[in-house]
Design brief:
about 700 residues, alpha+beta, D-amino Acid Aminotransferase, Chain A, domain 1, DNA polymerase, domain 1, Rossmann fold, seven-stranded antiparallel beta sheet, 26 strands, binds adenosine monophosphate, binds zinc ion
Amino acid sequence: MAEKKNPATPIPVEDLTELEAARELAALAKDIAIHDVAYHQQDAPTISDAEYDALRQRNMAIESKFFHLMRPDSPSHRVGAAPASGFAKVTHAKPMLSLDNAFDEAHITAFVERIRRFLSLDESETIELVCEPKIDGLSVSLRYENRTFVQGATRGDGTTGEDVTANLRTVTGIPKTLPDDAPDILEIRAEVHMRRDEFQALNDRQEAEGNKPFANPRNAAAGSLRQLDSKITASRPLHFFAYGWGEMSPPGIDEMNAATHWDMLENLRRWGFETNHLATLRARVEDCLAFYKDTEARRADLPYDIDGVVYKVNRLDWQQRLGQVSRAPRWAIAHKFPAEQAQTVITEIDVQVGRTGVLTPVARLEPVTVGGVVVANATLHNEDMIKKLDVREKDTVIIQRAGDVIPQVVKVITDKRPAGTDPYEPLTHCPECESLAIREEGEAARRCTGGLVCPAQAVERLKHFVSRNAFDLEGLGAKHIAAFWADGILKSPADIFRLDEKSDEISQREGWGAQSVENLINAINECRVIPLERFIFALGIHQVGQATARLLAREYGSLEGWRKAMAALAKGDEETRAELENIDGIGPSMADDLAAFFAETHNMAVLDDLDAALEVEPFTAPASDSPLSGKTVVFTGTLESMSRGEAKSRAESLGAHVAGSVSKKTDYLVAGPGAGSKAKKAAELGVRVLTEAEWTEMCG
Ligand code: AMP
Ligand code: ZN
């Protein structure tokens, strides 16, 4: 346990060996690409923005030290291009601030006292505060020029956000034009959110269509607003409350005809913006705290999520004098609600299998009310979490809802533990399909290896199977897959090629006519011949993306050749593993995934089934007349005319394999200055060594 690599504390970049750096860059390129798709195309991020940024930073740090290892598919090449950052950047005319947080009454009293001191007000002076609920959504800035909506942006880092103008135009309630008495330039700050019932309905729809549900209304609102296709945003129920403003002209307070925040809220309403109707003006701290208590009591009944209340100094001249400290105004504070907690007993620990095969332990609870909602399940996240908390069946625990729909177990009350319980033992097999469940080094999750047979993963696998870079089967959309699957027409990928036997049954279904069924069957028939690399990619083996599938197809040539090698790998054949890992771009953890997939007899049955229904074309190397076609090339040392990445893709485009180390199979070693052990090995084995110039000539 002690020397196990902890992903939270990575090796410092200075200490990385070249091999480690190359492996990590490969893993990062893959991970970041997966997160990009999850975030931008499926609006279902699986990690936080901060974690995502950390991955990108790590990638950049390694690349700047090991410049020559920069990959052709490096995420750094994608900066600014869709879909990694899909939206144009907007610099806010005035920064969008955050708020200081307070968790108890003493903090609020201190806040008011601080203001009194700062403004040198004596005790008799009243400091009025506007009290508003703190909406748990995402903040946006709406810019109006000459009373016309011209630009909308997310908060981003406060200074720059993303341009989501087209999407915000689809949000009902955001005025496109303002009345004549509105200022020439006006930036409105508002909280976009989704109501709880609409969120529930959206999630039901997501599930029915075979898409991943959102964790909470805030995620759903953010995902809906940050869509590359504004038609999707338009189909989502979004609302907003205006609570503030940024740049405004004429800039003077008096000219605004408002001396107070309260008057400004009145102005916002007159100009056509919805503001929160619970907002109220209070003169004394005790009255503010009473508002807090009232609001907390009403929290569960409100149609939208809130996570506290906000107090703001009412007088605008005082706001101006108070200014801001770092990123928050001195004249406002958020009084947060505590997380909603309750005590209950875990009846059992169950394991759920997600759509991507991840096993998530779930605590089944004696039902209990938390913040107005009856809760019977709580997530335990993963095995490490269970171990850390030492959660056992029959334990009395504290659970907590923190915005998310699914509550978490935060603590075990060990005093109440009954005698004779055992620590939790992770499952070794998938509870849905009995396939082996493995956990790879550095990953928190355990996953099912029965991709092709696991009912929990079926719909997702089928969607992947027909996707553009796999079988590219148009006419069988996500909705159809989910519906066919639910009715048992489609269980495994090979069933697709038997749908022609069910055409009568399908044409009876709603939305299907004889013509559309015929089109589908024709489209399926066109997919019966498929290149090996697409076939491999379509299987959806963990970590085997398009690039890896291509490498495998190139190495093993035919489906038969590949299956034979992978079967040997699964049996633990060392030589096969060495050969596989020697392919540049394939590492030990990918080899583990391939081995796990091929060790599963259910998966092999599906492969046999597919093999019988299809003609999988052997890999054909492009440009077969090139002298490099079919040759194995290894690069070493520094190249002068191009990067290692470019040299590699050039060689591959001419039909060569690029390997990471020299062996008997190597045809050429291309050695730049600084070549070391590889050159020595090549000399020993009699492998032909080329200078960079000789190699470029050979490439033509
Ligand atoms: P924080 O995200 O903790 O920095 O809190 C600041 C955020 O609270 C702002 O950026 C807004 O998105 C959000 N917010 C929600 N309701 C209000 C409100 N009534 N007044 C100000 N900010 C609010
Ligand atoms: Zn399974």
